[in-house]
Amino acid sequence: MQSRKQHFQAFVLTGAAPQITVAISSKLASKYHSPKDLKGLKVGVSAPGSSTNMVINYVLAQGGLKPTDVAIIGIGTGGATVIAAIDQGKVDVISQTDPAVTMLEKAGKVKVIAETRTPEGTAKLFGGPMPAASLYAPLDFIKKNPNTVQALTNATVRALKWMQDASPQQILETVPGEYLLGDKAMYLFAYNNVRAAYSKDGYFPEAGAKTTLKALASFNPNIKPQEINLAETYTNEFVKRAHAKLDKKK
Fold this sequence. Notes:
Elements lengths: L7 E6 L6 E6 L16 E4 L5 H12 L8 E4 L4 H9 L5 E5 L2 H7 L3 E6 L3 H8 L7 E5 H6 L1 H20 L2 H7 L9 H11 L11 H14 L10 H4 L3 H13 L1
Parallel strand pairs: 3-4, 3-5
Antiparallel strand pairs: 1-7, 2-5, 2-6
Helix pairs in contact: 1-9, 2-3, 3-8, 6-11
């Protein structure tokens, strides 16, 4: 956003990894050997310009391809719509999140070619940690509303710590029914696939910001690393205070 003169700052991390998987239809899997084989294919992302779009752009760059070398199609993130897009041949490749990817994978309908569901898979693809979901806001808002930002951070850190010890049944009880896609067992299987991708404490790793900048610059010529002030893009100060408050309650 800095490259577009928009100054935002992330203040609590929820996703230690993007939890996004790139998979190709099983019908085309035998023809896939490297990212360059994606040229000319239809790729289903949640929406153009989204994080799922960013991940496929990075994968394409690894094969020397540009985003324009494939057809990017927005298919949402709903499990039913993602599965239908593959079943009906609307897309050849997906860059999506679980549980849809796991359901397709278990059914033998897709083959995973890159994944960021785990810190290990993320490091393999990007060469280092890649912070994902977070709460962020314009810098001016954060400066003017520190109490609001702190309250949001406190609640998020408390939730992240709860998730570390929560049982599968407790997780299910907090998830809206429509997200289960009518299959609680499959949802839990998919959740366990990505559980390690949730931040344990809300802190941003310094190396993560560097990895993110390198990845974005690899396929977006408008991003000039030398012009980006990474220190301004995130802060751990609110998370530190949130932990201090929780520790006092122990």
